[in-house]
Amino acid sequence: MTRFNEIAENLAEVQGRIDASAKMSGRNVEDITLIAVTKTFPVSDIEILKELGIHDFGENRDADGAEKARMVSAQWHFQGQIQSNKIKSICSWSHVIHSLDDARHFEIIEKFASHPLDIFLQVSLDGADNRGGANREALYQLASLVQASSTHRLLGLMAVAPLGQSAPEAFTSLAQIHQEFVTEFKEATFLSAGMSGDFEEAILHGATHVRIGSSILGSR
Predict the structure, then answer these.
(1) Exposed/middle/buried for residue 160 (C-beta within 10 Å: 0-12, 13-18, 19+)
(2) Is 88 helix (H, G, I), strand (E, B) or coil?
(3) Taking Cα atoms as reference points, which of 120, 209, 128, 121 lies closest to residue 161?
(4) Which of 52, 128, 173, 202 is the most exposed place for a label (fewest CB within 10 A)?
(5) What per-residue confidence (pLDDT) applies to 129?
(6) What's the Cα-to-Cα distance from 93 to each of 40, 188, 218, rounded to whole Å?
(7) What DSSP assignment string belongs to 93-144?
């Protein structure tokens, strides 16, 4: 089997599962954005996915994202933990940031971003410091900063299901947090949640953006 055929088969299966989950949640599949996570995979795989109709790609590391974005024109998403010394570079190649959780980082984005960015705020579902994410108080303060920007757009919230917590439990909690959040930040209606192991559950709980790597491209 060629690499093209392998990726095409995997992608078709994932898209079918997204469609089924969308229908189960009473939503249109067109309202769900599939982000192909390409970390550690070569540019040739990205080119195959583009040929298959995928336009959104995600990277967790700045160096990899910057290199691939130079080579492939697409909608690029940064979804890794943000480091202060990488922000200027991240802003140069990404179009969407999924993991903003610190007001100091947004100040740097405001200063150095060369183009408007769409921004998700990462919320912590378990309070663990090592996995990123803001607590509720910090989340609302950060949202106010982003919403006040004349350049950048607050899209909504992002979260990763905590280790040791079931996907239904995690995404039920996230859905409740997001429902409360949009009462104050009414345009922040998008929700980035779900990866290869749990994207169907995330969709059932309102995810609008799913970040899928291994189910499409295989094991790293």
Answers:
(1) buried
(2) helix
(3) 128
(4) 128
(5) 63
(6) 17, 23, 25
(7) H-SEEEEE--HHHHHHHHHH-SS--EEEEEB-SS--GGG--B-HHHHHHHHH
The pLDDT confidence band at residue 128, using thresholds 50, 70 and 90, is low
What CATH architecture does domain 3-217 belong to? Alpha-Beta Barrel (3.20)
User: Tokens 């953006």, residue?
Assistant: 209
Per-residue pLDDT of 142-170, as tens digits, reads 999 999 999 999 999 999 998 888 999 99
CB 140 within 8 A of CB 171: no
Counting every residue, how long is the chain? 220
* Residue type (1 letter), 60: N
Q: How many CB atoms lie within 10 A of CB 220?
A: 8
Phi first, then psi, for residue 158 (nearest 5°) are -135, 150
* pLDDT score recorded for residue 213: 97
Q: CA-to-CA distance for 122 and 101, rounded, in angstroms? A: 5
Percent of the chain scoring above 70 in pLDDT:
98
Which of 26, 45, 35 is closest to 199 using CA atoms? 35
